[in-house]
Each structure stands twice: as structure tokens, then as C-alpha cells.
Amino acid sequence: MTFGGEYLYPSLIDKAAALAFLLTMNHPFVDGLEVSASVDDAEQMFLNLA
Question: Domain ranges in the chain?
């Protein structure tokens, strides 16, 4: 995601942290919020490092 031609989250760690934060705070799931955010965060890190 960019704004003004610059990445909002330049590093992989920043992107993973933003994703985990938004999944946890925006409550897209009824139950198991923290677990779902953690699993998704780990999966994104694995896919981006592979």
C-alpha cells in the first residue's frame, strides 16, 4: 500500500505488525480473534520469507 509514491509499511515487519493490529482491532471474527490474527501473521511471514 502506497501513499504519495511511498510505502506506508516499508519493511516486512511493519507490514506484519499492521496486519496483526488491524485484524485484532477491527474484529472481523466473532470468536478466536487473537488466535486468528497470530496464525495469519505467522502465515504471512512464512510466505514472504519463502
Answer: 2-49
Beta strands in 1-50 (DSSP E): 2-3, 6-7
Find where cell 485484524 sits.
23
The 8-class DSSP code of residue 21 comes to: H
31: helix, strand or coil:
coil
pLDDT tens profile 10-27: 888 888 788 778 877 776
Q: How far apart are CA 48 and CA 34, in angstroms?
A: 21
State the amino acid at position 45 in one-letter form: M
What is the rounded distance in angstroms from the CA atom of residue 50 to the CA atom of residue 45? 9
pLDDT of residue 4: 92
**Using CA atoms, how far apart are residues 27 and 23, in angstroms rounded to an integer?**
6
